[in-house]
Amino acid sequence: MKNNRRFNLRYWIYGATILCWGSAIGLFVTAYRGHHLLKLIPIIAYNRPQGAFGWSLTLAVILSFVSFCAFRQHKFMHPKAPKS
After folding, report:
1. Of 1, 4, 13, 24, which Cα lies nearest the Cα of 71?
2. Which of 13, 18, 72, 74 has its CA 20 to 30 A from that of 80?
3. DSSP string covering 53-66
4. What DSSP string runs through the chain?
């Protein structure tokens, strides 16, 4: 049961990551096509994200880092670790 929860959590985080990256890219493309790129800045000001683009980009980077660190396959085995 515990493994199944981790499996579900992994795909929820992957889905949220894809959604955040998609919204950040979509907001950037929309601003680029309308020649309003300067309206996207400041992305981070006063130590917190600003606007929809800043929040989606920040969450996308955080979720990408979490999914990379938490759910990667450990292929490297320490030389002093017992072999099973």
Report:
1. 13
2. 72
3. HHHHHHHHHHHHHH
4. -HHHHHHHHHHHHHHHHHHHHHHHHHHHHHHHHTT-GGGG--SEETTEE-HHHHHHHHHHHHHHHHHHHHH-------TTSPP-
pTM of the model: 0.75
Residue 44 CA: distances (Å) to CA of 13, 17, 52, 60, 75: 23, 19, 11, 14, 36
Q: Which residues pair with 48 in a beta bridge?
A: 45
In the numeric block, the tokens 């920040």 are attached to 58
| CA separation for the pair 6, 12 (Å, rounded) | 10
- Each residue's pLDDT tens digit, 4-40: 666 788 889 999 999 999 999 999 999 999 999 999 9
